[in-house]
């Protein structure tokens, strides 16, 4: 029973069905894990005081043979950018008033409640999720379970640190430029940025239509299961896609035989650490051995960092315009907001046109290739407390593979594909055509069937 914390959501649900263990036992195992490891890794900024009460209610439902939805009794953590009724959503900021009121659930949180999930608490984020690592003046530095001296990445770094250390099997993350995939790459997890609008979001991120909500897990099947819940409709998000009442687990085992996969080691412009590049390239044999046709092919677009910066920096300026105590805000966020204030309406409109052209370019690219694979990141995890590795100047420098596909709104996932000599995880990035979330999940599951996801020894 002491190992209940290590089980996947699918394994927990099967155990509940067979009455092999109960949600109460699982909740206690996970809470013990949080008590042991959260002081070291700083994954949670709030831990629920209601978990055992929720678990006892779930246990009663399972004993009666009437589980509530798809995740009854499964512990899930919530990134502290998502509104959660009754809990402060401080977004890693001292400038947010903890008094609230906190009367609303974000769509993803509402769906989890409806399906009986046990809401563990809120996970740490950099202030307003503005960068690719997780530290803030409010919550301090979050650390990587593979090596506490290293960052878990961000901005969903608390979610990743919780998962990788066994503090719950499921987590909700957000991804406005890589914030699900970055920490999943650094901590050896699976994370999916769904197609934009697949998972309803409210309120809209201040960074606009690059921001996605999605699952972070220790197995591909768990992510598909979570997507069944998260993708259900919510009228508050007018950007959301028409609801598809499908089971995202269907077809997961169909494999990749016959798929046309383009592999780009650098997208034509990225500088990638040699060890990371070699690990990713070496992992591609998994796909060819499973019958896919893998061809080295660069998509052929220029680095869209300029497009992304206009979107991101102007969003930061808009965000801080509503902050009264700006002096409390992370200096780095203040810096990009100041740059964002200088961006003109003409530049915004011009970049919107360029963004549209990039999206169209990728749509045309996918007529010839079912999937695009790249490294998830240009580096392995670096020192905790830094925004970028030595020699960098901004978090976008070392995330050249993630933010382009926020601009294009395509589904993209990171799955671990190996370890560096220093024992740090490296992620493989799988990108699908817009709305082809099921195909990305299927390819990731095929990869996972050969390279199972592991956890650090703690």
Total DSSP E strands: 13
Strand-residue proportion: 5-15%
Structural class: alpha/beta
**What spatial order of strands do you see in the largest sheet?**
1-3-2-6-8-7-12-13-11-9-10
CATH-wise, what's the superfamily?
A: Amidase signature (AS) domain
Q: Main beta sheet: strand number and arrangement?
A: 11 strands, mixed
CATH architecture: Alpha-Beta Complex
Question: Which term fits the overall shape?
Answer: globular
Q: Assembly type of the shown chains? A: single chain
How far apart, in Å, are the first and last alpha carbons?
17 Å
The overall pLDDT average reads 97
Radius of gyration: 20 Å
| Element string (H = helix, E = strand) | HHEHEHEEEHEHEEHEHHEHHHEHEEH
Number of discrete domains: 1
Task: Describe, in short, the structure shown.
By secondary structure, the chain is α/β, with parallel strands linked by helices. The protein has helices at residues 9-17, 23-41, 51-63, 107-114, 157-164, 181-187, 220-230, 274-283, 285-289, 305-321, 331-341, 345-365, 404-407, 437-450, and strands spanning 44-47, 75-79, 118-123, 135-136, 140-141, 170-175, 190-193, 212-217, 260-263, 293-296, 371-375, 412-419, 425-431.
